Amino acid sequence: MRNAMLILAAATLIFGCSKNETSSSTTSTTETTATMATAAPPPAAQPVPAPATTTTAASAPAAPASAAIASSDGEKPGMHIDITELKRASGGTVNLKFVLSNNTSERVGMWRFLGGKDTNDDNDVSGVTLVDPVGKKKYFVVTDTEKSCLCSRKVDHIDANSKLNLWAKYPAPPPDVTKVSIEIPHFQPIDDVPISQ
User: Which fold has domain 70-194?
Assistant: First the structure.
């Protein structure tokens, strides 16, 4: 009987240990699963923002033209001139740049329109002169040895509602002359035009 009790006690002890190991193993597995379940999930992929809309060159506004430093209206309504530059240059000269606008509904011929009498080209702008009102001196367009002006030449016509960029080169007035008048055939005189350096 005593042996039977010892065997029963040993069996209970073995069974109990075995159950504790299983329980411990189960508890460990449960803890691992719980730990994995509570771990932070990987971050979700962030949506990529759409690229900003850009303006194409075709829809961009055109660059503004050079600002006029002086202007004049012509004898014929709709004709207009903007002086865009009067600047001293190398070689003792002054460069004049201007824009002729034809805001009429018809083409205007340039034959002797802005030309002078002392050049070989009837379609140039040699008739445009600079005047120093203080020194009482008029400056004509520079010409070469063949009497061709250093200016816009062979300008046949200007179409309706269009513009022409024109230029001419003159002997430079003395350094103390900072403003001149510009006389253009068929246009009102333009006074006090500054000469830039």
Answer: Immunoglobulin-like (2.60.40)
